[in-house]
Specification:
By secondary structure, the chain is α/β, with parallel strands linked by helices. Helices cover 37% and strands 21% of the residues. The protein folds into two domains: 50-59 and 154-351, Rossmann fold (3-Layer(aba) Sandwich); 105-149. It has an eight-stranded mixed beta sheet, with helices on both faces. It has a two-stranded antiparallel sheet with strand order 1-2. Helix 5 (107-122) packs antiparallel against helix 6 (127-149) and helix 7 crosses helix 8. It comes from Paenibacillus lignilyticus. Keywords: Methyltransferase, Transferase.
Length: 352
């Protein structure tokens, strides 16, 4: 870990600057990471452009995505009460609230409390209480490792490595299914002067997930004046948040970048062409569509089993980058760049 001296985040609303490049440190809820991604220690997590000719790739060769079938107890209970399958909008609302509660946790404090609760449960000799308490311990330790220690959810170094090098200046960026808008803010840091439009049909995403995203979280990007590195914060970005269904948008082809993160894998094959087309609808000629999905690897499969009550309210698949890219290629895009990082695949494409 870099030994640069951190600034006390509780004292300053924007506690980091270019003077602390190379710093990483843990807050109670997340990791701050101002380290460059171009170093040997991190490069082992990055694999880029592994497919040479997408026209030669077939589904027989790559196989179909892995479907996550374990559902949350909240979804099961809702469906029992309503005697029907949970609709997509309700499931997304349930997921957003559960997910944000975990982002807000003081993780060291939660770990201590859950361990104490587990020890107390042992004294009851009641298997159901012991299982519940043990499940809480397992989930908080896994969340701590994946999100806070490994920074596998936000993964700023990985995202920068996949998003850099686009031929855009002061781009207009549209984020479909934006949630808190993290990746669009990272893009806005890499391409200063960007105009960002976040879209989600759950108002909770605008008011809470994005609205309560910490102003003290630093995004490492580029300086237009020096050409070097610069640290940005959420208030530095030009962001509009639209609460609506993507299918209702009337922007036209006015965006340089159309982005989705963890969107494509929530739709069965019947609907994937439509989801891919949502990106095409809003792109300028020569613009870039960026897609990311969770990777199909044993760590991800285990994560979605242990964290089912927090993560699994909706239909979900885990993909390889080849599977994701083939969906995008077959639906009218050329793949400009593709790769995978710790927990995510990414494809950057242009309309063919």
């Amino acid at each position: 870990m870099n030994t640069a001296k951190p600034v006390n985040a509780s004292r300053l609303e924007q506690p980091y600057s270019e003077r602390q490049l190379g710093l990483t440190e843990l807050t109670p809820s997340y990791r701050v990471d101002l380290r460059p991604h171009k170093d040997k220690a991190y490069e082992r997590f990055i694999r880029v452009n592994t497919v040479k000719d997408w026209s030669q790739l077939t589904w027989e060769r790559v196989g179909k995505p892995y479907e996550v079938r374990t559902m949350s107890e909240a979804r099961k209970q809702w469906e029992q009460e309503h005697e029907k399958a949970m609709d997509a909008k309700t499931s997304w609302t349930y997921f957003n609230k559960a997910f944000h509660e975990w982002f807000d946790k003081d993780i060291p404090k939660e770990i201590s409390g859950d361990q104490s609760a587990f020890l107390k449960s042992l004294a009851t000799f009641k298997p159901s209480e012991i299982r519940a308490a043990l499940g809480d311990v397992a989930r908080i330790h896994l969340w701590n490792y994946v999100h806070r220690i490994q920074d596998g959810v936000w993964d700023p170094r990985g995202k920068r490595s996949l998003f850099e090098g686009l031929n855009v200046t002061r781009p207009r960026i549209l984020f479909l299914g934006a949630a808190e808008g993290y990746e669009a803010m990272q893009l806005a840091a890499l391409y200063p002067g960007a105009e960002v439009v976040l879209v989600d049909y759950d108002a909770y995403c605008k008011t809470v997930r994005h609205g309560e995203f910490p102003d003290s979280y630093p995004f490492l990007g580029s300086s237009t004046s020096t050409g070097g590195a610069k640290v940005y914060y959420k208030p530095d970005f030009n962001i509009e948040y639209v609460v609506d269904d993507v299918r209702n948008l009337s922007f036209g082809k006015t965006f340089d970048i159309v982005l989705s993160v963890g969107l494509l894998e929530h739709f069965p094959d019947t609907y994937k062409p439509e989801v891919v087309d949502w990106h095409r609808r809003f792109l300028k000629d020569g613009g870039y569509a960026i897609f990311t999905t969770p990777r199909n690897q044993w760590k991800s499969r285990l994560f979605y089993v242990i964290m089912a009550d927090i993560m699994n309210h909706t239909y979900r698949e885990l993909m390889t980058v080849e599977q994701m890219g083939l969906y995008i290629y077959e639906n009218g895009f050329d793949i400009i760049r593709h790769g995978y990082i710790k927990a995510h695949n990414a494809v950057i494409a242009q309309v063919r």
